[in-house]
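Quick one: p53 apoptosis effector related to PMP-22 from Eulacestoma nigropectus, structure tokens please.
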Amino acid sequence: MVKYGLDYTRCRWILPLLLGIGVIFGIIALAGRGWLESQTLPYVQQASLWQNCRRPGQGGEWSCESLMGYAWGRAAAATYLVGFLLLVICFALAIIAFAIDTLRFNFIRGIGGLLFVAAVFSVMGLVIYPVKFSSEIEMTGINMFSWAYGFGWTTAIMEICLGFFFCCLPNYEDQILGNVKPTYFYSSP
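--- reply ---
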């Protein structure tokens, strides 16, 4: 990407594309019912960020309770949701920043800083949830934090990594814009 510059059409949209994938992973984490699941048969417990569902046996009816009745449930949902909204804002700003012909590198560095703030909020929600869930809600059987919780962590890790990319990209401004003369390693005899 640095070799061809950000004007190279296929490389220009890599970072906004990765942010878009992070947004999709965040939607899956917010909507997924697999934050906590039973690991073995009979599957008797399943929880999302918003509710906890149980059933008495394999053929029983699921009964769900909202986690919004707990202060920690509201805190976990709010902090993760704030992190996700900041990620969506960064995605929109990245589309705007890379669509403009002349890049504003300070603007790109600001997106990176905002991604770090989003990562802090996401990680706070992802830490509050399992700690308080396992200490305050009685769990039956063998349970595991499952796929939707993993998508939440993937989103947080993407926010951190992309924050580094967005913050470090302005350091290569001259190479990206083509203002540096190429150096040749071949010298004639």
